[in-house]
Amino acid sequence: MVLCSRSLLADIVKIKMEHYDMSKVRSQSAEEYLKAFFEAELKPIWPQGWIQTRSVALFTVNLRKI
Predict the structure, then answer these.
(1) What pTM does this model have?
(2) CB 3: neighbour CB atoms within 10 A?
C-alpha cells in the first residue's frame, strides 16, 4: 500500500511539475506551487495527522532531482 501510494504521489507530482513548467505566469516557486497544491488538494484525502507537509516536500524535492 505504501509503495503504491508513493508511486501515485510521484506520478501526481510529475504531472503537476509538467504543468508548472509549461505555465507562462509564475507567481510562485516550484516548491511553493507544489506545497499549495498539496495543502489544498491532496492532504485532505488522507486521515488527519497521517501525512505531514514536510514529508511530502522532501519527497517531491527528491523527485525533482531525478
Answers:
(1) 0.70
(2) 7
Residues 26-62 as b/e (b if ≥16 CB within 10 A, e otherwise) read eeeeeeebbbebbeeebeeeeeeeebeeeebeeebee
pLDDT in tens, 17-63: 889 989 887 888 888 888 888 889 888 888 888 877 777 777 777 66
Count of all residues that appear for the chain in the document: 66
Transcribe 3-65 into DSSP letters.
HHHHHHHHHHHHHHHHHHHH-S--SS-HHHHHHHHIIIIIGGGSPTTSS-HHHHHHHHHHHHH
C-alpha cell read off for 10: 510521484
What pLDDT shows up at residue 66? Answer: 56
Question: Which residue ranges make up each domain of the chain?
Answer: 2-65
